[in-house]
């Protein structure tokens, strides 16, 4: 099929991913067709296959891209020695990073069920790498007598679940600033483990 006039791969590829992300978040992966994505981008449906082999690959690429970006951004953060400082840095980073990407976060959690087993396993491996950092912080804090947690894995999942909740309600320009939200959540995380 012919490419729409003015369409360029370096522009259209990212537009395909952006359109898919928005449509999957709004309507759900199962309800969005490749034709609908093409329509949103302004290309022929067949042209999408120049950018992705199929809809499953597109979903996987979106999720993998989000996790790769998360892990890379986390690696770029300053490091701290004490478990308490590391936990605070992790908590604040998690909130800031995820608030800037609400659609990617939504897709990463709500559409896991639509991944093939192989793709699910790959995303779970990336998620475990991120969770492992928090669990290591909690384990180090417990071993140093700073944190009191019965199970580091459950505590890891509980903290991440709590921090993810900010995405469901926080709006810039609302009653609380991002700095205030970070401080309140950090206080709750700290109290949960000390």
Descriptive notes:
69% of the residues lie in helices and 0% in strands. The chain has nine helices and no strands. The model is unreliable at 1-7 (pLDDT under 50).
SSE blueprint and pairings:
Blueprint (H helix, E strand, L loop, with lengths): L8 H19 L6 H8 L13 H21 L7 H17 L2 H9 L6 H27 L8 H13 L1 H4 L8 H16 L1
Helix pairs in contact: 1-2, 1-5, 3-5, 3-6, 4-6, 4-7, 4-9, 6-7
State the gist of this model.
The protein is mainly α and 194 residues long. Helices cover 69% and strands 0% of the residues. The chain has nine helices and no strands.
Sum up the structure in keywords.
single chain, 194 residues, mainly alpha, 9 helices, disordered N terminus
Number of helices in the DSSP assignment: 9
Low-confidence stretches: 1-7
Instruction: Report the helical percentage.
Output: 55-70%
> How many DSSP-defined strands?
0
